[in-house]
Amino acid sequence: MEGTELNAYYDEAAVERWAGEADKRPGRTAFQRDRARVLHSAALRRLAGKTQVVTPGTRSQAWDPSPRTRLTHSLECAQVGRELGAALGCDPDLVETACLSHDLGHPPFGHNGEQALNDVAQSCGGFEGNAQSLRLLTRIEPKRFVQDEESGDLVSVGLNLTRAALDAATKYPWPRGAHPADPASPKFGVYEDDRPVFDWIRKGAPATRTCFEAQVMDWADDVAYSVHDVEDGLHAGHIDPNCLHAEPERREIFAVAIGRYVPADTDPAELAAALDRLLDQEWWPHGYDGTAVAQARLKDATSQLIGRFCLAAEGATRERWGSGRLTRYAAELVVPRATRHECAVLKAVADRYVMQRAEQERLRADQRIVVAELAEALAARAPEGLDPQFRALFDAAGDDRARERVIVDQIASLTDASARSLHDRLTARRP
Question: Which domains does the chain have, with CATH numbers?
């Protein structure tokens, strides 16, 4: 079986679960079980209705196939991460599990919804999609329950994944305000009331350091969304490839990248060189008209870019760490500076021409109103207005802070469409 030999490179602590349980089917590895649990979860299915860049169900006037959602992005990230991880000696099921899990906690309306929900959740510790993913994997997604020794009540342990799988899915292994390089950063990976399981996951791990599999997952995420967001932007007619040769468009792209996708002290000339390296490739899509030939050429370009970014990381990592199996905390993923710049330029292109469109800002403003009004309406009606799962959690909450967190959990679980539908119902707004 594929993962059996590879699991020999992971110790007993890595395959331990918060709640011990017997395997239903002997012969499977612990990480194959983890992957199956995430793949069959309701949380993963819900990503089909959550925004990646273009809102699901919308269509531009240009020829536009179905745009990517959070689900299709997660599946593509998983494919990239699985192959890169396997090439570097990781258990491929473990890396794939991390990639499938990395966006589970994201709320409706993409990063815009995440920011709006963070505003709502200030008094209960804020909201962060990665911290929400951990909460979902270890508490909210109903799969395994254990009996509390003191109260005798049944308590959810979520999907009850292995320590290594939960660690591999953790991009930011620190609580709010504890970013090792930037305490003001909004990025964090655990809420205070989830610290017990987080501390269990991180037992023996170097403080604030991500494991090797999480680094592979993180790079696979960057590669997938940088390449595919540009592909979707071309399909939708939002990106004109000719603009990438012209001023002032190029300066605007680099301005978007600096401070957001690369450090603030990055020389724009480095980004210009990175963009020119991509434009000089014979497979680069210098035009796009939606024909079958153009679609095929664009798809080849996305494949070339993914291969370019992954092979660069694989080669640099092997050069630094050798040819053996690289797992857990035995190595660090090495991505060449020039490769990171190429990836960052693609992110900035999608940001500049897709996310910064005027109609997108109007849509985002409306989405923020929906999230804020939903939180207010649910708080006024709780627990009756909550779904049965969250109603029970609200009733069991010990204080106002915990009850507010349950309302945030309810909103985060919604898709774009269900958030609007629930908002319309609770506020009597008619579509």
Answer: 14-202 (1.10.3210.10), 217-359 (no CATH)
